[in-house]
Amino acid sequence: MSGMPAPVTLCNAGGGSPVLLLCEHASNHIPPEYRDLGLPAAELQRHIAYDIGAAELARRLSARLDAPLLLAGYSRLLIDLNRPLAAPSSIPEISEATVIPGNRGIDAAERARRQAAWFVPFHDCVAALLDARIAAGQRTVVIGVHSFTPVYLGQRRPWHAGILYGEARGFGTALVRALAAEPGLVIGDNEPYRIEAAMDYTVPVHGDARGLDAVLLEVRQDLLGDAAGWDAWADRLARALRQAIPR
Predict the structure, then answer these.
(1) Residue 1 lies in a domain
(2) How many structural domains does the chain have?
Protein backbone atom coordinates (compact mmCIF):
# COMPACT_ATOMS: atom_id res chain seq x y z
CA MET A 1 0.00 0.00 0.00
CA SER A 2 1.44 3.37 -1.01
CA GLY A 3 2.36 5.72 1.80
CA MET A 4 2.85 2.91 4.30
CA PRO A 5 6.14 2.62 6.18
CA ALA A 6 8.67 0.07 5.02
CA PRO A 7 9.04 -2.95 7.34
CA VAL A 8 12.69 -2.00 7.83
CA THR A 9 14.73 1.11 7.12
CA LEU A 10 18.51 1.09 6.80
CA CYS A 11 20.22 4.29 7.95
CA ASN A 12 23.89 5.17 7.44
CA ALA A 13 24.47 2.06 5.32
CA GLY A 14 28.11 2.95 4.71
CA GLY A 15 28.97 3.59 8.35
CA GLY A 16 32.48 2.45 9.19
CA SER A 17 31.96 1.47 12.84
CA PRO A 18 32.24 -2.16 13.98
CA VAL A 19 28.82 -1.60 15.57
CA LEU A 20 25.63 -2.68 13.79
CA LEU A 21 22.65 -1.05 15.52
CA LEU A 22 19.18 -2.61 15.51
CA CYS A 23 15.97 -1.03 16.79
CA GLU A 24 13.32 -3.73 16.67
CA HIS A 25 10.68 -1.76 18.61
CA ALA A 26 11.20 1.62 16.93
CA SER A 27 7.61 2.28 15.82
CA ASN A 28 4.05 2.07 17.10
CA HIS A 29 2.56 2.10 13.59
CA ILE A 30 -0.36 -0.25 12.91
CA PRO A 31 -1.93 -0.43 9.42
CA PRO A 32 -5.50 0.93 9.21
CA GLU A 33 -7.00 -2.45 8.36
CA TYR A 34 -6.01 -3.69 11.82
CA ARG A 35 -8.12 -0.97 13.49
CA ASP A 36 -5.52 -0.42 16.21
CA LEU A 37 -5.99 -4.09 17.20
CA GLY A 38 -9.10 -2.97 19.09
CA LEU A 39 -7.12 -0.78 21.49
CA PRO A 40 -7.82 2.81 22.59
CA ALA A 41 -5.42 5.31 21.04
CA ALA A 42 -3.80 5.98 24.43
CA GLU A 43 -2.60 2.38 24.67
CA LEU A 44 -0.60 2.80 21.46
CA GLN A 45 1.43 5.55 23.13
CA ARG A 46 2.56 3.17 25.90
CA HIS A 47 5.54 0.85 26.08
CA ILE A 48 3.37 -2.09 25.09
CA ALA A 49 3.22 -0.74 21.51
CA TYR A 50 6.85 0.36 21.05
CA ASP A 51 10.01 1.30 22.91
CA ILE A 52 9.50 4.96 23.73
CA GLY A 53 12.48 7.09 22.72
CA ALA A 54 14.46 4.16 21.34
CA ALA A 55 14.37 5.23 17.69
CA GLU A 56 15.52 8.76 18.49
CA LEU A 57 18.29 7.40 20.69
CA ALA A 58 19.36 4.90 18.04
CA ARG A 59 19.57 7.57 15.33
CA ARG A 60 21.78 9.73 17.52
CA LEU A 61 23.96 6.79 18.49
CA SER A 62 24.33 5.89 14.81
CA ALA A 63 25.58 9.41 14.08
CA ARG A 64 28.02 9.47 16.99
CA LEU A 65 29.53 6.08 16.17
CA ASP A 66 29.20 6.25 12.37
CA ALA A 67 27.30 2.96 12.64
CA PRO A 68 24.69 1.49 10.29
CA LEU A 69 21.24 1.25 11.86
CA LEU A 70 18.16 -0.83 11.06
CA LEU A 71 14.83 0.59 12.25
CA ALA A 72 11.63 -1.48 12.32
CA GLY A 73 8.58 0.21 10.81
CA TYR A 74 5.68 -1.39 12.69
CA SER A 75 4.42 -1.96 16.21
CA ARG A 76 5.63 -4.86 18.28
CA LEU A 77 1.96 -5.62 19.00
CA LEU A 78 1.52 -6.89 15.42
CA ILE A 79 4.51 -9.20 15.79
CA ASP A 80 7.49 -8.76 18.10
CA LEU A 81 10.74 -8.76 16.15
CA ASN A 82 12.74 -9.71 19.24
CA ARG A 83 10.77 -12.86 20.03
CA PRO A 84 11.08 -16.32 18.46
CA LEU A 85 8.06 -17.14 16.32
CA ALA A 86 7.09 -19.98 18.66
CA ALA A 87 7.10 -17.77 21.77
CA PRO A 88 3.66 -16.84 23.19
CA SER A 89 4.78 -13.20 23.24
CA SER A 90 5.55 -13.22 19.49
CA ILE A 91 1.99 -12.00 18.84
CA PRO A 92 0.83 -11.19 22.36
CA GLU A 93 -2.76 -11.66 23.44
CA ILE A 94 -1.90 -9.79 26.65
CA SER A 95 0.91 -7.25 27.01
CA GLU A 96 1.76 -6.42 30.62
CA ALA A 97 -1.84 -6.38 31.90
CA THR A 98 -3.53 -5.11 28.71
CA VAL A 99 -5.63 -7.48 26.60
CA ILE A 100 -4.94 -7.07 22.86
CA PRO A 101 -8.32 -7.86 21.24
CA GLY A 102 -7.00 -7.98 17.68
CA ASN A 103 -4.49 -10.68 18.60
CA ARG A 104 -6.91 -13.06 20.28
CA GLY A 105 -7.71 -16.27 18.46
CA ILE A 106 -5.93 -15.42 15.21
CA ASP A 107 -5.41 -18.35 12.86
CA ALA A 108 -2.26 -19.79 11.31
CA ALA A 109 -2.82 -17.89 8.06
CA GLU A 110 -2.85 -14.55 9.86
CA ARG A 111 0.27 -15.49 11.82
CA ALA A 112 2.01 -16.39 8.57
CA ARG A 113 0.87 -13.12 6.99
CA ARG A 114 2.37 -11.05 9.80
CA GLN A 115 5.58 -13.05 9.75
CA ALA A 116 5.98 -12.51 6.00
CA ALA A 117 5.05 -8.82 6.17
CA TRP A 118 7.23 -7.69 9.07
CA PHE A 119 9.34 -10.33 10.81
CA VAL A 120 11.02 -11.93 7.79
CA PRO A 121 11.98 -8.69 5.98
CA PHE A 122 13.61 -7.23 9.08
CA HIS A 123 15.63 -10.29 9.97
CA ASP A 124 16.54 -11.09 6.36
CA CYS A 125 18.00 -7.59 6.17
CA VAL A 126 19.97 -8.10 9.39
CA ALA A 127 21.28 -11.46 8.16
CA ALA A 128 22.28 -10.05 4.77
CA LEU A 129 24.19 -7.19 6.38
CA LEU A 130 25.98 -9.55 8.74
CA ASP A 131 26.83 -11.96 5.92
CA ALA A 132 28.33 -9.11 3.88
CA ARG A 133 30.32 -7.73 6.80
CA ILE A 134 31.70 -11.14 7.72
CA ALA A 135 32.59 -11.91 4.08
CA ALA A 136 34.47 -8.60 3.92
CA GLY A 137 36.36 -9.40 7.12
CA GLN A 138 34.73 -6.45 8.89
CA ARG A 139 34.72 -6.69 12.68
CA THR A 140 31.12 -6.57 13.87
CA VAL A 141 29.35 -6.05 17.19
CA VAL A 142 25.54 -6.35 17.24
CA ILE A 143 23.73 -3.83 19.44
CA GLY A 144 19.97 -3.72 19.98
CA VAL A 145 18.63 -0.36 21.20
CA HIS A 146 15.63 -0.57 23.53
CA SER A 147 13.84 1.26 26.31
CA PHE A 148 11.93 -0.09 29.30
CA THR A 149 9.07 1.14 31.45
CA PRO A 150 9.96 2.42 34.96
CA VAL A 151 7.15 0.36 36.52
CA TYR A 152 6.10 -3.08 35.27
CA LEU A 153 3.13 -4.91 36.78
CA GLY A 154 3.37 -2.62 39.78
CA GLN A 155 7.07 -3.23 40.40
CA ARG A 156 9.37 -0.21 40.25
CA ARG A 157 12.61 -0.72 38.35
CA PRO A 158 15.55 1.13 39.90
CA TRP A 159 18.01 1.02 37.00
CA HIS A 160 18.70 3.97 34.74
CA ALA A 161 19.83 1.52 32.07
CA GLY A 162 20.67 -2.15 31.68
CA ILE A 163 22.91 -4.29 29.50
CA LEU A 164 21.51 -7.66 28.44
CA TYR A 165 23.76 -10.35 27.00
CA GLY A 166 23.94 -14.08 26.43
CA GLU A 167 27.23 -15.61 25.33
CA ALA A 168 29.02 -12.23 25.10
CA ARG A 169 29.73 -12.10 28.82
CA GLY A 170 33.10 -10.39 28.50
CA PHE A 171 31.78 -7.63 26.27
CA GLY A 172 28.55 -7.29 28.23
CA THR A 173 30.23 -6.92 31.60
CA ALA A 174 32.80 -4.50 30.16
CA LEU A 175 29.93 -2.35 28.94
CA VAL A 176 28.23 -2.52 32.34
CA ARG A 177 31.45 -1.37 34.02
CA ALA A 178 31.96 1.48 31.56
CA LEU A 179 28.44 2.80 32.11
CA ALA A 180 28.54 2.28 35.88
CA ALA A 181 31.62 4.51 36.00
CA GLU A 182 29.47 7.44 34.86
CA PRO A 183 28.39 9.60 37.84
CA GLY A 184 25.06 8.84 39.48
CA LEU A 185 23.97 5.91 37.34
CA VAL A 186 22.49 2.60 38.47
CA ILE A 187 23.21 0.09 35.70
CA GLY A 188 21.59 -3.33 35.48
CA ASP A 189 23.73 -6.35 34.63
CA ASN A 190 21.27 -8.55 32.71
CA GLU A 191 18.47 -6.42 34.14
CA PRO A 192 15.58 -5.64 33.79
CA TYR A 193 15.53 -9.17 32.35
CA ARG A 194 17.86 -11.92 31.15
CA ILE A 195 18.39 -13.12 27.62
CA GLU A 196 16.83 -16.54 27.01
CA ALA A 197 16.88 -18.34 23.67
CA ALA A 198 13.22 -19.34 24.09
CA MET A 199 12.12 -15.73 24.63
CA ASP A 200 14.64 -13.55 22.74
CA TYR A 201 15.67 -13.46 19.10
CA THR A 202 18.23 -10.79 18.21
CA VAL A 203 21.04 -11.70 20.59
CA PRO A 204 20.75 -15.51 20.35
CA VAL A 205 20.29 -15.64 16.56
CA HIS A 206 22.25 -12.72 15.14
CA GLY A 207 24.93 -12.63 17.81
CA ASP A 208 25.52 -15.78 19.81
CA ALA A 209 24.83 -18.25 16.97
CA ARG A 210 27.37 -16.46 14.77
CA GLY A 211 29.99 -16.08 17.47
CA LEU A 212 29.60 -12.28 17.44
CA ASP A 213 29.52 -10.05 20.49
CA ALA A 214 25.89 -8.97 20.88
CA VAL A 215 23.98 -7.10 23.58
CA LEU A 216 20.77 -5.20 24.09
CA LEU A 217 21.00 -1.68 25.48
CA GLU A 218 17.98 -0.90 27.66
CA VAL A 219 17.41 2.70 28.83
CA ARG A 220 14.54 3.63 31.14
CA GLN A 221 11.96 5.37 29.01
CA ASP A 222 11.32 8.30 31.36
CA LEU A 223 14.93 9.34 30.68
CA LEU A 224 14.22 9.47 26.94
CA GLY A 225 11.33 11.92 26.88
CA ASP A 226 12.95 14.70 24.89
CA ALA A 227 15.95 15.69 22.78
CA ALA A 228 18.04 16.49 25.85
CA GLY A 229 17.57 12.93 27.10
CA TRP A 230 18.24 11.37 23.70
CA ASP A 231 21.43 13.39 23.31
CA ALA A 232 22.68 12.72 26.84
CA TRP A 233 22.16 8.98 26.55
CA ALA A 234 23.63 8.81 23.06
CA ASP A 235 26.75 10.51 24.42
CA ARG A 236 26.97 8.13 27.40
CA LEU A 237 26.41 5.01 25.36
CA ALA A 238 28.85 6.06 22.65
CA ARG A 239 31.56 6.64 25.28
CA ALA A 240 30.86 3.30 26.94
CA LEU A 241 30.83 1.37 23.66
CA ARG A 242 34.14 2.87 22.57
CA GLN A 243 35.66 1.71 25.86
CA ALA A 244 34.12 -1.76 25.85
CA ILE A 245 34.49 -2.90 22.23
CA PRO A 246 37.53 -5.18 21.94
CA ARG A 247 40.34 -3.64 19.89
Answers:
(1) no
(2) 1
